[in-house]
Amino acid sequence: MSRNFELYDLRITIEKIEGRSVCGLEVGDYFEVTESNRLRIPADKHFCIYAISAVLPLIPAKQRELAENDWLERDSLIACPDPDERVIMRIERIGKRTMDSDELT
Fold first, then answer.
1. pLDDT digits 0-9 by tens, 28-55
2. Is 19 helix (H, G, I), strand (E, B) or coil?
3. What are the angstrom distances between the C-alpha of 53 and each of 20, 45, 102?
4. Whole-angstrom Cα distance, residue 76 to residue 88?
5. In this predicted model, what pLDDT tens digit does every residue of 70-92 receive, in sequence order?
6. Using CA atoms, how far apart are residues 5 and 46, in angstroms rounded to an integer?
7. pTM summary value
8. In what order do the strands lie in the sheet with 30-34?
9. Cβ pair 85, 21 in contact under 8 A
């Protein structure tokens, strides 16, 4: 019996900064979540842990195929929790991969 399922790889990109970037992020900075749970940040870059924390609850849903009218399917913008910075991030799907549930927990 096949235990395969599909998940999207995601890229979370800084789309705009409406305040001041205290944490040093710039428009275009990004991180990726691939292979279900691997967080990748480009070499010589960083990403604020508080901005990441704002995105984390949405990642499992955005990794999966959702109903066309589900609000999570349509919405892709997330705000950093720091009101001075007003960093806006976009979640986008960058690929789809087949995973074997027996290899994951």
1. 999 999 998 999 999 999 999 999 999 9
2. coil
3. 19, 18, 28
4. 10
5. 888 888 999 998 888 889 999 99
6. 31
7. 0.90
8. 38-40, 30-34, 4-17, 87-100, 77-79
9. yes
